[in-house]
Design a protein that fits this description.
Length: 44
């Protein structure tokens, strides 16, 4: 898997952290990949 560094605004980072801390996702990377998959599906 390719590595990528991404910067987030403070509100977006807090939102990502909250979802990881709730154990809905194991990492911000997992959540980000899921959001991208969802966006791709919506474009189809």
């Amino acid at each position: 898997m390719a590595r990528q560094s991404t910067s987030f605004t403070k509100p977006n980072n807090e939102w990502l952290k909250a979802h990881v801390e709730s154990e809905e996702y194991t990492s911000k990377s997992e959540l980000g990949n899921n959001l991208i998959r969802q966006a791709c599906e919506q474009q189809k």
